[in-house]
Amino acid sequence: MATATVANHDSAAHDHHDHEHHDNFVTKYIFTQDHKMIGKQFLITGMFWAIIGGFLSILFRLQLGFPGMDMSFLRPILGGWIDEAGALDPTFYLALVTMHGTIMVFFVLTAGLSGTFSNYLIPLQIGARDMASGFMNMLSYWFFFLSSVIMFISLFIKTGPAGGGWVVYPPLSALEQAIPGSGLGMTLWLVAMTCFIASSLLGGINYITTVINLRTKGMSFSRLPLTIWAFFLTAVIGLLSFPVLFAAALLLVFDRSFGTSFYLSDIYIAGEALPNTGGSPVLFQHLFWFLGHPEVYIVLLPALGITSEIIATNSRKPIFGYKAMIISMLGITILSFIVWAHHMFVSGMNPFLGSIFMFLTLIIAVPSAVKVFNYLTTLWRGNLIFTPGMLFSIGLVSFFISGGLTGIFLGNSAIDIQLHDTYFVVAHFHLVMGSASFFGLMAGVYHWFPKMFGRMMDAKLGYIHFWLTFAGVYLVFFPMHYIGIAGFPRRYYSWTNFEFANMYTDLNMFVSVAAIITFAAQFIFIFNFFYSMFRGRIASLNPWRSNTLEWTTPLHPGHGNWPGEIPTVYRWPYDYSKPGAEEDFIPQTVPLSATPESNLPHEQELVKLELEIMKEDEEVLVANESKH
Amino acid sequence: MESELKYVDLVEQPISMHPKKFALWLFIVTVVMVFAAWTSAFIVRQAEGNWLDYDLPQIFWFTSGIVILSSVALHWAYLSAKKDNFSQLRIGMSLAVILGICFLVGQWFSWIALVDSEVFFVGNPAGSFLYVLTGMHALHLISGLIFLIIVLISTFRYKVHSKSMDTMEMATTYWHFLGGLWLYLFMFLLLNH
Ligand code: HEM
Ligand SMILES: [Cu+2]
Q: In chain B, positions 56-115, which contact chain A (CB-CB < 8 Å)?
């Protein structure tokens, strides 16, 4: 139906303008409804935010590694946030941390990752002309853009951007008197996040509708690439959790601007009691983490899906445990909604409730471990081809293991008393969420760049980028475990006045230097990306010899993806190195009847059915042709 | 140009459900989640004590009746549209819209009654929650009203008939949902105050 409307719309436009209808600059690059262009818009915006977010982290790493250093050279950018002596303003430090978290979690790893690849790959890999609603899809991007503009403006206002941490706990975030960042900056944060939620929901509704309704013939759920499964479940998680963040944020807005007391109670400021009574700050934590924990999987699942695809392709082996992968993703989807209170073990929660959440949290490690196991067994004795995309995928698996292990410690409510809000947590989630998802994003870009732009990225630069980043990530985040176990708290501007923390000065300096090098290495990628876009080697149609449908489109697919019929799908996407087959890959569009030499016994039985269906198709096709 | 046309020419694809209708259901899911969040926050907060007890405005009983009647009228209109009975369709839809407006007015009076009994938006969260729940429901109802009015206008242009029921069906689904949502909220408030 939607494709039919697309068709009607296009042919109608065609009639009106009488052969003049061609996409002009605005409808092609700006207000486009083509899912491929929208995906690229998300990617470019995400990259922009990644640079900003990364830069902010360098600023606060400077303060952490070299406490009180003279930052006057940054005055041209930071202006009044550097005081006379050249030191960074402590409240601005908090704002930096807050904006770094918000930008990375939401703008880069949610919009930049899901937004890019769900949009780009869903129609291409399921065999659809476009998303269910191109208009909603366009709206989704522009809500994100609006949100970005507002968040960006908040960086430059006089009182600074929001400063209460990316989790914006009240009362800190609710009271303007608390820190400068809780004034206008926090208001803009809330407005921007509301637009962001609208964008995510519009996108998510579209992804789900498309995957369910617009699959091409033969593309049953058991033949979907794991990427699509991952994007689909990510959208489901988003659909169920983002509304809750909205609900929480709206009550916060009422507390901030209308004087209600949902989260505020019995607060004294400078000896004066505030009028608010009866509120509960823990209520906010519950609502926030009901989104917040699923959000970490919203960030991770698409990266895992991308990895499944790339690892299978470049190991020239079927993915190990396709069904187990789907089941564990389903398990993660469900479980991710019932573990949120592990972020609140020390909030004064009933310890019995804490044990329940501890138990549920440890269960979620099981499907995660199944996925890791399946990646490793897919790699095991494969004909590994180390493309940059493959390296980044393997890097993801490595981070997922090393970061996932620390999750098990944190999930124990007793151990978490020591570890909560220390650098141990920072190390945990930067490995398992931040770096793993970032590597998934990078893997995806390297892998699908030829499809996106019709050219290859430079592999050598890709390798350099990979090794610098891979080593850099471990050098930055691994030491943080130690300082975390020592009790070093996160979000502190200065720590040198604590006796126990003094001995870590060198370590912190080391981390900061590593961070700067890692950040600098990303510009190799940026260069490679834009250079290859215009000057890269022209790609072949299927450069990775992959099975999925997107590689059956022309080099520069038009709006509608396939000229002529949408291909029909006859097999799952992981027929790599099938015994008996001539080539080491059999694309999904090759009928079983064409490969008698490699069919398994049960597939041989399907051949008859397949031939019947193909005959019917033929008849429909002929009937269609005669209509025109 | 040629190639562009070829792209769209041969579109004929099996599709399981009208994607717009499906998307509407997904939207309804998000609204359910928003209200689920607020009602569970209500319970969590109430369990902590320091909770103002007050009587729910009696008007809620009337507005609940109105919302049911409005849904009935719309359903009648929907059935009439299926039978291409245009005069009944318009009467039914107009009735639904008018009753919808009456519901909103009724909700406004419930707020006046609340203020009269000293339950304010700003104050104990017990009261604030009531305003948020009714207010946000009213806001969604207004969006539903706008949708209904758009469909009502298109009925005068003969755009809704037995062969073109999609928007009408969607409007009906959304409106029934909003009515049901109110009944849920009212029951919830009756049971938890
Ligand atoms: C093996 C499974 C995992 C377990 C048992 C686990 C457990 C935990 C626990 C208990 C905390 C709270 C620590 C504290 O604040 O004291 C935590 C924090 C966090 N985890 Fe995990 N985790 C796991 C996997 C993941 C994954 C896969 C992601 C992301 C993709 C993730 C992202 C995060 C984030 C972002 C935080 C910190 C949030 C903040 O306070 O700002 N975790 N984890
Ligand atoms: Cu969590």
A: none
